[in-house]
Amino acid sequence: MSREDYEVVIGLEVHAELSTKTKIFCSCSTEFGGEPNTHVCPICMAMPGSLPVLNEKVVEYAVKAGLATNCDISKDSKNDRKNYFYPDLPKSYQISQFDKPLCEHGYVEIEDEEGSPKKIGLTRIHIEEDAGKLNHNEFGGGSLVDLNRAGVPLIEIVSEPDIRSAEEAERYLKKLKSILEYIEVSDCKMQEGSLRADVNVSVRKRGAKEFGTRTEMKNMNSFKAITRAIEYEKDRQIDVIEEGGKIYQETLRWDDVSGKTFSMRDKEDAQDYRYFPEPDLVAIKLSDEYIQKIKNELPELPESRKARYMEEFKLSEKDSRLLTASKYLSNIFEQAQKICGNAKAVANWLLSDISRILNEKEIEPENIPFTGKDLAKLVSLIDNGTISSAIGKKVVEELFENPKDPEEIIKEKGWIQISDEGAIKEIVLKILENNPQSIADYKAGKDRALGFLVGQAMKETKGKANPQMLNKMFLEELNK
Amino acid sequence: MDIIDFTVHELQEKLKNKELTSYDITKAYADRILEKEKDVQAFVTDISQQALSKAKEIDNKKASGEITNSLAGIPIGIKDNICTKGVKTTCSSKMLENFIAPYNATVMEKINEENLINLGKLNMDEFAMGGSTEYSYFKKTKNPWNLNKVPGGSSGGSAAAVSAGLVPWALGTDTGGSIRQPASFCGIVGLKPTYGLVSRYGVVAFASSLDQVGPITKDVTDCAMLLNIIAGHDQKDTTSADIEKKDYTKALKNDVKGLKIGIPKEYFGEGINSEVKASLQDAIKRYESLGAVVEECSLNIADYALATYYIIACAEASSNLGRFDGIRYGYRTSNYTDLKSLYRNSRSEGFGEEVKRRIILGTYVLSSGYYDAYYKKAQKVRTLVMKEFAKCFEKYDVLLTPTSPTVAFDIGSKSSNPLEMYLSDICTVSVNIAGLPAISIPCGVDKQNMPIGMQLIGSRFSEETILNAAYAFEQDYKFREKYKPEFKK
What we know:
The complex is a heterodimer.
Chain A (H helix, E strand, L loop, with lengths): L5 E12 L38 H13 L3 E2 L2 E2 L2 E4 L9 E4 L6 E9 L5 E13 L3 E4 L6 E4 L6 E7 L6 H17 L12 E11 L9 E6 L2 H20 L8 E5 L4 E4 L1 H4 L7 E2 L6 E2 L2 H10 L4 H11 L4 H8 L2 H14 L2 H19 L10 H12 L5 H13 L4 H8 L7 H14 L1 H8 L4 H13 L6 H12 L2
Parallel strand pairs in A: 12-13
Antiparallel strand pairs in A: 1-10, 1-11, 2-6, 3-16, 4-5, 4-15, 6-7, 7-10, 8-9, 11-12, 13-14
Helix pairs in contact in A: 2-3, 6-7, 8-9, 8-10, 10-11, 13-15, 13-16, 14-15, 15-16
Chain B lengths: L7 H9 L5 H19 L2 E4 L1 H16 L11 E5 L26 H8 L3 E6 L33 H8 L5 E6 L5 H6 L3 E4 L19 E6 L2 H11 L29 E5 L9 H16 L3 E5 L4 H19 L18 H12 L2 H14 L5 H24 L2 E5 L15 H6 L5 H6 L3 E8 L5 E7 L5 H15 L1 H4 L7
Parallel strand pairs in B: 2-3, 2-4, 7-8, 7-9
Antiparallel strand pairs in B: 1-3, 4-6, 5-6, 5-10, 9-11, 10-11
Helix pairs in contact in B: 2-3, 7-15, 9-11, 9-12
């Protein structure tokens, strides 16, 4: 059999750090990047006798996430202890939720390979605390424990094994990220680890009903690594099976440098978390009114924003989807179109040149260095003929390099469009003089020659000449 | 009468009338400690000498009107599992031999607000696990009535210190009887409040769903006064109840006419010493003569309470004590090569036998494959125990039982037999399982002049009822006038 005869089955456990100001069980700051062990207190350091107090915001944010992903919200929930020893876990147990999570039975809608909508089921969303961090080998061997992150609130979003390809996994993750950003419960900064995923992968023969044995890769925090790891692990599992081997349920470590997974079986042996109800906290009881209130306060989500763009701005389904995929991109769009009134042009800039640069430079939309106001200014400058769209492209490049008011950029760079008739005429005559062959071609009926001449003129003026005027004047001269 | 013979409410009177100063009182106790501590061995950390300057300071502040609390300047002793900022909190364990908490337990904050003076930290069974205080890493506390006998446990240091007059009153903690049983063994008063009445913040956890802090005092009035100080909702402990603050001394009406007392027959069966039984029978008659209505009743589940208790308590302990791992504070082995051996050796060397036994038990009952058979079943029985008690309290105001099946036993006689030691908790544990309040007061002595304790159990938050019932008995029986610890060697 070939690899094509197998299908991959993927389930994701996504951990998102919630953007509450304080930790889940104490009033320490959740801010990222402080000096080690400065955002700590007796509670998150697990000093003897300290007790947790549940941060109500954490419950609110988790309920928000549940409602935005079509979950049922449990009115009767509780915390449990997950016991294991590790130096980054000061209590030797993580306060999590075991059999009564806050949210259950939800789904997130993505597009499948054919572009039709597909629902990825969510088993559950529960709240828990993050662990601290170990800094290895910084002071000549050994490890140092930094507990700033210990007790930062997390939600764990567990998907059903509904995902069937690495691309779907990426689409699902991007959609989830987008939803969490829209409802403002997590900043989802993957490079800071505030969004990370445990990836479960198994393979089975196409058409088989039973799932294969799955392996798990923990704490993945880039889309690229996740898709590469899934592809690798899928092929590895198929090869093992094809060679008559057996897949073991285990935790694997993805090594981004070698592009391979490695067994971590040592840590896995005898992992029994001995979950039991957390006796230091009372049960979480939510009223219908409380849940309804959060529901009423939910902001516009990507799906409804997309529909609005199609309706209000007559944008295509695809453009509307791409624009609303990121709250940040979408917000720039909203701001820019409001100021300049040219939604189509704003959308075009965002989806063509700006998206291309984001891709090339691997910049996330939240890190776009300019504002919607800047983009609106750019569109207006083109609309009123101050610059050409060719110059516009250069302004966009410049906005990424050295963001400031586009008007200032074009002044500084001397990019203001040449619309003076005399000046244009001078250029036209010069180009014609240097290109007698083109004149001959044009006269012989080759219309392409006009385009060539305009191009030469644009080159000569470094794109500053008004292209409509050039066109008009070349035609006048050629037809004389 | 010596200063150390007065109850706290008597001392309060004398302070008010300016017959005594805080310094007089504190000095009397500091001297008493110098005299008797070598026999009793109640303290892990004795700070009575430092307390003298604190007493002077309080006398001055009272004179200038800066301090007005009527109990200001009265000394107190604190069980060594209650965190005290700046003073060691060891839990009588090698694991925390040098641990100084950077914060006060909430009860300690309340003690400080009243300007009570801490004389020191009192010995206990390691991490409050035991019934004799023999499992302390540091020393074996002796029973002041007979120095060859145990003071009970785990709050044995607190009970012995109050009984011996080393402190006027003390705080203890009670997870399965750790206040009431030593109070009973030492002939004094001990109250375990309703679960949730007193904050657990800063009290080193043994079993979170069972632990409560409570008073250990010379008499019932002192007990009500100390409860007044420590009771109350605490935002730092979400399991603490948000209920109205009461003045428990107002409940002491010395009147039990018509009080309905149930006598659960299961607590008077096999295994209860005959002298203890006889003494309890006398107490029951006394209540009848005072006008109470006494009736035999039944608590069917009593037989299962002990097993249930040890499963739940050990399960929670196994998790609570995980933080003592040698990483951040406390004992760390010098003998390790990797993380595993650091954990294993720190915990093997830092914990005593009984603590390790309970961690292993607790780990076992929570393990996958055993959870349903043990922990989950124990939780179900726990619910039944609560229901059974609730049924009793539909008929009775108070339940009366022995506090312990025996009087204080000889040092060394049970410490090598854990099961026998566990059986001495048989009368007290079900109260913790049900989260109820219960008080132990002395109701007699045996032929060897060792005190016998009686336990009065109330429904949730009925501290006033059991305090009043205890008070009426105390006023009529006058145990303190009849018997005194003899420091028999």
